[in-house]
Amino acid sequence: MAGLKAVLLDIDGTLIDSNDAHAAAWVEAFRGAGHDAPFDKVRWLIGKGGDKLLAEVAGISSDSPKGEAISERRAQIFREKYLPNLKPFPRVRELLERLHRERHRLVVATSAPKGEMSALLARTGGAEFFHHAASADDAEQSKPDPDIVNAALRKAGCQPDEALIIGDTPYDIEAAGAAGVGAIGLCCGGWSRGELRGAVAIYENAADLLARYETSPFFTRR
After folding, report:
1. pLDDT bucket at 219, cuts 50 / 70 / 90
2. Among positive and negative, which fits the CA dihedral 116, 117, 122, 124?
């Protein structure tokens, strides 16, 4: 991709093995508020913002007192119970280093709130390779709406056709498409190749992408 200037990256399920942990934290928070939220239903929605997840699982507005209480409890559970044990997928740091070495601007594009994003980014082991970050705090609407991708593009200072996004969910692919950005899908977040259809290319995980880097859309011959 000759005009590639920036690589936008999701974190959860893409760089860090955290999707199950997020789902478990939501289930526990819902249960504490008197709602039975099946794990499988919640798990399928991980990758969307908490506002959309609350509405789809329990019909609760994120702006309501109950919605805010559940979201705060979910954040506390995740931070205290799950975050300390999260690990990056294999060779994530090496992939970030390779992208950085080839002078691509690396920008986070996540539905996580800013504080949580910073803690997650630290768990990747390659936070120093990122130039900018766009989180839920930078967007009116969360994924699969394109707001976060558009915010990441603004921070990268580039046009949609000068960027690619790496993500692990159908919501990443949908958000990228709505913003006019090509998406690279990774299956490590729990979705199949068929569920990631619409991506420019699909790999198993960061290690697979790195192993096939020279045939990937990121490789530039010099």
Report:
1. confident
2. positive
Residue 205 inside a domain? The answer is yes
Name the β-bridge partners of 132: 107
* pLDDT tens digit sequence for 10-55: 999 999 999 999 999 999 999 999 999 999 999 999 999 999 999 9
Better-predicted residue by pLDDT, 219 or 25: 25
Residue where a domain terminates, one of 59, 84, 109: 84
Tell me how far apart the alpha carbons of residues 89 and 93 are, in angstroms, rounded to a whole number: 9
Give pTM, 2 decimals: 0.95
Q: What is the β-pairing status of strands 201-203 and 182-186?
A: parallel
User: Of how many residues is the chain composed?
Assistant: 222
Chosen domain end from 58, 84, 110: 84
Predicted confidence band of residue 165 (pLDDT cuts 50, 70, 90) = very high
Tally of structural domains, the chain? 2
> Are residues 130 and 167 located together in one domain of the fold?
yes
- CB within 8 Å of 109: residues ≥ 6 apart: 8, 9, 10, 134, 148, 149, 151, 152, 165, 167
Q: In sequence order, what are the residues at sequence separation of 6 or more whose Cβ sits closer than 8 angstroms to the Cβ of residue 121?
A: 11, 108, 127, 130, 133
Q: What angle do CA 100, 149, 216 make, to 5 degrees?
A: 45
Run of H or E including 194: none
Give yes or no: residues 199 and 209 share one domain.
yes
Tokens representing residue 5 in the block: 């200037």
